[in-house]
Design goal:
The chain is α+β, with helices and mostly antiparallel strands and 293 residues long. The protein folds into 4 domains: 49 residues, no CATH class; 120 residues, Band 7 domain (Tetrahydropterin Synthase, Chain A, 2-Layer Sandwich); 54 residues; 35 residues, no CATH class. The chain is 46% helix and 25% strand. The protein contains 8 helices and 12 strands. The longest helix has 54 residues. The radius of gyration is 49 Å and the shape is rod-shaped.
Length: 293
């Protein structure tokens, strides 16, 4: 089948222009549409005007292609953890080694903590302009390490070990909150998970605990001995009183000793015939003497 001249003729210039224009429009439109995911915000950088003051919320937003660029920021709460095992850091956005610091009395401690924070979305243009997207490594990490070392140095090692840990955490949180505010970051909380001490200090604490337990054990023994001494005193006082009463009874009834002797032989006997001439009657020992008239 023969082809006519129209079928062999190449596309006209107008058609080519239309195709190019269509492709360009498609590229232009696709480049102008930006999707901001949930929990994120976008800062717009304009090649002519610089960082624009308006922040873009999540959803679809538009930029001028090849002139403006959208930089996305995560505004969800982030957790930065320092030190501890992987299981301790589960859910943490970042992790690093524990912070080594010196106490006021020169003892080395290793602090493991987590810091929860997020960038303030209303100040994202300022954050991007003054710090940039790498604000964690530029601001968060150095400030955490600096504040921890400064505050730990204000306390003796025994305060860090025992009573002042909560106070230290509160003070760290206050200092970091003020610092983060200067860089358009919001601090939620600081959590001290663990503080490790030097081997020498641990051994000293263990020796102190052993000595304390020994002292408590000795105090218990002394207390038992004091109680036993008191018991013997009471018992001796009771024996002395018993002897006194018995002496008075013997003075009033000389035959009582004979009765006690007989009681040991046959308890309950009140009279006994010693021989054909002697009858020992003890019944009157149990009778109250009649008052003298």
């Amino acid at each position: 089948m023969a082809l006519n001249d129209r079928q062999l003729r190449p596309p006209s210039f107008q058609v080519m222009v239309g195709i190019v224009a269509g492709i360009s429009a498609l590229v232009f439109v696709s480049a102008s549409v930006v999707v901001v995911p949930a929990g994120e915000r976008a800062v717009i950088f304009d090649n002519i005007r610089g960082v624009l003051p308006e922040m873009r919320n999540e959803g679809i937003t538009f930029v001028v292609p090849f002139v403006q660029k959208a930089i996305r920021y995560d505004v969800k709460t982030q957790t930065y953890s320092l030190g501890g095992s992987d299981s301790d850091n589960m859910g943490a956005s970042t992790a690093d080694s524990a912070i080594e610091a010196l106490t006021a009395d020169g003892q080395k401690v290793s602090v493991e903590l987590s810091v929860r924070f997020l960038p303030k979305d209303s100040d994202l243009p300022k954050l991007h302009q003054q710090v940039g997207v790498d604000y964690v490594n530029k601001i968060v990490v150095p400030e955490i390490r600096s504040v921890v070392r400064t505050i730990v140095a204000e306390y003796n090692v025994m305060d860090v070990y025992s009573t002042k840990r909560r106070d230290i955490q509160i003070k760290m949180e206050k200092e970091l909150r003020n610092t983060f505010e200067n860089y358009y970051l919001q601090l939620n909380e600081v959590l001290i998970r663990n503080i490790r001490f030097s081997d020498e200090f641990q051994k000293a604490i263990e020796a102190k605990q052993v000595a304390l337990q020994d002292a408590q054990r000795m105090e218990y023994v002394l207390q038992k001995e004091r109680q036993e001494k008191q018991r013997k005193i009471i018992e001796a006082e009771g024996d002395a009183k018993s002897i006194s009463i018995r002496g008075q009874a013997l003075a009033a009834n000389p035959r009582l000793i004979q009765y006690e002797y007989v009681q040991k032989i046959a308890p309950g006997i009140r009279a006994i015939v010693a021989d054909q001439k002697t009858i020992m009657n003890f019944s009157n020992l149990f009778e109250n003497p009649s008052p003298a008239k």
